[in-house]
Design brief:
By secondary structure, the chain is an alpha/beta fold. 35% of the residues lie in helices and 23% in strands. It is built from 14 helices and 13 strands.
């Protein structure tokens, strides 16, 4: 089976989302207690825990990694395409977003370029770059995100760079960002669809679908490919079917009549890709892509696995590969990511995605 492009290569993609810098370092348990945090939790920055950033940044081993869902996916996509700042790969992967005018901005830009991702980032002088403290101890970690400039991308910047944006052959929308800058996302989707270019939507989280259902459905109805996990798929469908296929069927029926792929990750069950035939009112197919086997003892961090799957899948979709190969790429990339803390990888490792 062919991917949505039916063998046609996609030379360039641009994604719109939240540029965030992850500040990663090991930390002692008493520091976690001091800031009233807990391992395994995500707690947004507040007056009680704001000191965690300084605590991590004074560590000699602190690292800075471009974070945020869509940046994770783009870095993985570029890695799977074997792109970097010296690569001759004939592909282009671009990140569209907003940062503050501070040292974090440059850390994001440098890291994106090193991984072969082109930054197209507005500078918002009145806000600092969004960041996330990632406190680590052995296999435990806790996250303290602080979202600021990444939510402030404006229409003026988008209009100023519209020619460059529309030079890309596909658009990826991050659900987290969609709920913050819906009108910008809607406008870009309309322009890409007018030019007959594919639109990809990542639902991102159940609350994005439930709390912003009208906006999410409006973009989903235009999307050629939708990425989500099973819980997000059920939220999109508005109900849970008797089995997986039934839920996919309900979700497809809720959407406009275009031949889209619904791609649903299901953890250890792998991934399901489905397409609905509106004329015959049936699913054309449901393909299951099985995950890469990873020993439980090797699993370090499951966060970022979905982002990595999207990145791996899109990398081979851009090459015009079959759905099967795209799923293999996504599963292989996820299998690497869950062995590390955060969405990190050795960019020199080459994954095998042969059919």
């Amino acid at each position: 089976m062919k991917s949505h492009s039916q063998g046609k290569e996609i030379k360039s993609v641009i994604a719109i989302g939240n540029p965030i810098v992850d500040i990663v370092a090991n930390i002692e348990k008493d520091a976690i207690d001091k800031y009233k945090l807990a391992w395994g939790q995500t707690v947004f920055a507040n007056d009680e825990n704001i000191g965690i950033y300084e605590e991590l940044e004074k560590k000699p081993e602190v690292t800075y990694v471009p974070g945020g869902s869509i940046q994770n996916s783009l870095r993985v996509c570029s890695w799977c395409l074997q792109m970097n700042n010296t690569s001759k790969a004939k592909k282009k992967v671009t990140m569209l977003g907003c940062t503050g005018d501070d040292p974090y901005r440059q850390k994001i830009i440098d890291a994106l370029k090193e991984n072969g991702v082109t930054p197209l980032l507005q500078i918002e002088k009145e806000a600092s770059t969004s960041r996330c403290a990632v406190a680590v101890q052995d296999k435990e970690r806790c996250l303290v995100p602080q979202i600021k400039a990444s939510n402030l991308l404006n229409q003026e910047f988008v209009d100023e760079h519209m020619k460059e944006i529309l030079s890309h052959e596909a658009l990826i929308i991050e659900g987290y960002f969609l709920i913050e800058r819906f009108e910008i996302c809607k406008g870009l989707v309309e322009k890409f669809k007018e030019q007959g270019k594919p639109v990809i939507l990542a639902l991102s989280a159940v609350f994005c679908v439930n709390a912003h259902r009208d906006e999410m459905l409006e973009i989903a109805n235009q999307a050629d490919i939708i990425f989500c996990n099973m819980e997000e798929c059920e939220a999109l469908a508005g109900e849970k079917g008797e089995n997986y296929s039934d839920t996919f069927l309900i979700a497809h029926k809720k959407l406009s009549k275009i031949g889209r792929h619904l791609i649903v990750t299901c953890g250890s069950r792998g991934v399901f890709v489905s397409k609905y035939n509106y004329e015959e009112e049936r699913l054309d197919f449901v393909l299951q892509g099985f995950p890469t086997f990873i020993k439980k003892s090797e699993i370090v961090d499951l966060n970022g696995a979905g982002d990595a799957f999207l990145g791996g899948y899109i990398s081979q979709w851009m090459r015009g590969k079959s759905v099967n190969v795209c799923c293999k790429a996504g599963n292989s990339a996820s299998g690497v990511i869950i062995k590390n803390v955060g969405c990190t990888f050795d960019k020199n490792v080459v994954l095998d995605f042969q059919d």
